[in-house]
## 1
Amino acid sequence: MTEEGRPDRPSILLIVSLCLNVALIGLAAAMFFRAGMRPFEAHEARGGLSAAALMRMAPAEQDKIAAVLDAHRPKLHELRRQAMQARTELFQLLSAPAFDSQAFAKASEAVQAADSALEAESLRTTVESMALLTPQERVQVASEVHKPGRTWLKHLLHKR
């Protein structure tokens, strides 16, 4: 025991905490590296309408839509990388010892601009993919797509 009456050896709680931190760091690193190894795929838009979703809803046009996705993939990948970089810079400013509100505001605008550019390119991909569909396929897609603005509670109450 030390002079203050505390034990010399680390407590069990400290050891468990350190082990959990090491495990979480390892898990985060594994997820980060696994995510980096996959090719970028466009995510479905909030309303459920994207080129990837169209490929499932209109299988007859799958090859043509895949060609559109392949043409846009490098640009989408670069825009996603820029958005992630902008977020990294924002969080670095947030965790800096001295907070600079002007730099943080500028970094926030960079995140917004990067996200907007990524969303715009994603929508261009969807527009080009929709143009490939026949009128009947567009009607089918419109009937299957999730309509935006409807919460799960409204949907649940509407069913009753």
## 2
Amino acid sequence: MEIIILMLVLLFLRPMFNLFFGKEKTEPGLSKAGYWEAFELHALFDDLNKVKAILEHTDDTRIDFIAFKDEFMEELDILEGENNPDFSRVSEWFAPDADWDRLMGPRGRVLGTSVFKRADWWKRNQ
């Protein structure tokens, strides 16, 4: 009889104990795909690949253009291989009136603005 009473007390006390002292159940975190979607990383990499295509098909012999093209291609290869990409350089290159705007002029402004907004948002919220 005492055992039954003890078991009943434990059955009532355990939920009360967990209610007051137990860990709160947390929502599961974002999956990697969800994280990338939330930070628009797929769209950012799509934009960066558009930039790559434009640079590859632009015949410009200016030294600053060739230097930017080489640096960009190298940086894009690094970014694509990283688990936690750092878009600091990309953000600097595509900031308003920075390298991209100076090299491409008005024809690259819309794409440059898109890259800058996404890269800067990722960099600030990382």
## 3
Amino acid sequence: MPTKFERLIGDYCLRQGVLIPSGFARLTPSRYAIIRTHLTPPKLIAKTWFKTADVVYYIEHFLLSELGGKLSQSIRILDFQEGVELSYTGMKRLDKIGTFSISDETKND
């Protein structure tokens, strides 16, 4: 049976036309996810994170070197627990920049 975050992220991606990689859900999905919006179609990064520090580490060690100054236009950082979108602001910080709709009709997890 899919976990709560696997359902939430999967449903969101299907509604938004985001490609879900085959490696998604290999590890238990967690609350923070990153979508690469510069790709066609946009693609979910298979790894998800529980702590913002881990999201920042991934951005700084993998995405920033690849995307550089185009980082903010190339990714969306989503918190599927709170329904907020975050932005990497440098200096090891993520700031809230908006909200998005999440739905979980089966809140039994």
